[in-house]
Amino acid sequence: MVTLLTNFWQTTGFANMTWQELVMLSVAGILLYLAIGKSFEPLLLVPIAFGMLLTNLPMSGVMEIGDTVLRAISPGAAGETARMLAEPTAEMLREGIPVEYYTQSPGGLINYFYRGNQLGIFPPLIFMGVGAMTDFGPLIANPRSIFLGAAAQFGIFFTFTGALLLGFTAQEASAIGIIGGADGPTAILVTAMMASHLLGPIAVAAYSYMALVPIIQPPIMYALTTKEERIIKMKQLRTVSKKEKILFPILVTVAVSLLLPAATPLVGMLMFGNLLKESAVTDRLSKTAQNELINIVTILLGISVGASAVADQFLRFETIQIIVLGVVAFAVGTATGVLLAKVMNKAMGGNAINPLIGSAGVSAVPMAARVSQSVGQKELPSNFLLMHAMGPNVAGVIGSAVAAGVLLSLF
């Protein structure tokens, strides 16, 4: 009886718990508290935190990778078959041993969800849903907003340089730098393609900073602007025609894809979703992209990203470096957007552009635009900056995808 109880105890998670897993379970608990208790981006943080909780429960096996056994029948077939299967844990026999068959034991449930990230499927689908929910009217009405969206991407390349100086490879530095765009799907796509071993910490950092936009941005905005600048009232935007809204996604897709083919999956799906919305003839498809599809993909993406934060891979010094560099990227992107808005305002007479909208150039939609509105109204309750800030905000979505295309093309 004692032996049975001992054997049972040894099969439980309690007996196999490590301090690293306890730390990760605590991190998951903190993220759940922020999401549920403080309403910090719950749609993102709840799936991520729960995925982190599941994968760090000892012996849960939710991220276990299935095994493949090969028996070769011709020289070189074993290695080639293993590469085609793309199974990291495949039991590869020597080159030259003939392949007769292969068998595969099933892996953990969330491991199969995770393939959507590894294969670059989930991020473009998220972009399609975002496009279906986005109104590019403010950007079309005020094309100068695109410069603010572009300026905010400076944080990506600034942090890329910093990561290189810290000893990261160009591919790893690219994945870390993209955090500065405050765009989770883009960060996941770039990391999955260039530095998949860093996907856990980078994804958690990217989505956490998106959730913390209302905390991170205001101090930077106050530090870089004066009271007089913060109370500037901007003129009402012109009305954008239906024809302009239909042509915009088509022209942007063609222009960006010809210039940066690597950005086509993200920009193309973003603009496709927007065309579904603006064409007014695909209402059912638009509503599906806006609701059911993006909700399902968000659940699968979030829980699989969280589950990738395994204790022995997450609790490393490089994770701390990534988190710090991510904050730097986000802060620099916010600051450069505000500073360019100040320069543009001065160039246009000093009372045309409220510099607060420059911080919305990061692509956290619509959180960054709401922060601009909130800070502006604290200074002047009758000031409404939301629609003006949406221009740089949606420009930032395009800008982060373009920045990702640049990095993917170069490295």
From TrEMBL:
InterPro entries named in the record? OadB_MmdB (IPR005661)
TM regions (residue ranges): 17-36, 43-63, 146-168, 175-196, 202-225, 246-273, 293-310, 322-341, 384-408
Tell me the Pfam families matching this sequence.
OAD_beta
Q: Where in the cell is it found?
A: Cell membrane
Q: Does the keyword Transmembrane helix apply?
A: yes
Drop me one GO molecular function for this one: lyase activity
Record membrane topology: Multi-pass membrane protein
- Give the GO terms filed under biological process for this record: sodium ion transport
* Keyword entries, A-Z: Cell membrane, Ion transport, Membrane, Sodium, Sodium transport, Translocase, Transmembrane, Transmembrane helix, Transport
Give Gene Ontology CC terms. plasma membrane
PANTHER family reported for this sequence: OXALOACETATE DECARBOXYLASE BETA CHAIN 2
- Give the matching NCBIfam families: Na_pump_decarbB
Q: What is this protein called?
A: Oxaloacetate decarboxylase, beta subunit
